[in-house]
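Reopening this one. Same input as before:
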Amino acid sequence: MAYNEKLAERIRAIFAGDERVTERKMFGGIAFMLNGNMVCGVIKDDFMARIGADAYDEALAKPHTRIMDFAHRPMKGMVYVEAEGYAGKGLRTWVQRCVKFAESLPPKK
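Same output, byte for byte:
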């Protein structure tokens, strides 16, 4: 299993109807893009959250989060969230944080 398809389906449901959002295979999982910028994604069973450098320390202080260290290199501004952290309404909250950051970026072509 490359990524948790049930988690991906939950994210798709949150983004339903938002024409700005596309999907792309990335990091061995799936990423959701808003206006060409990565918003969030799924790698194995983890939710991958792009929250930006300004919100990084605050995000890491939340339960069930850890540094995103893809290929053993920390990626500042991105965290992994374990299943307990995105259970129930927690996923929508994380997605909203990620969207807020992505909307602050200029669209990519």
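So the earlier flakiness isn't reproducible anymore. For the record, The longest helix spans residues 90-103.
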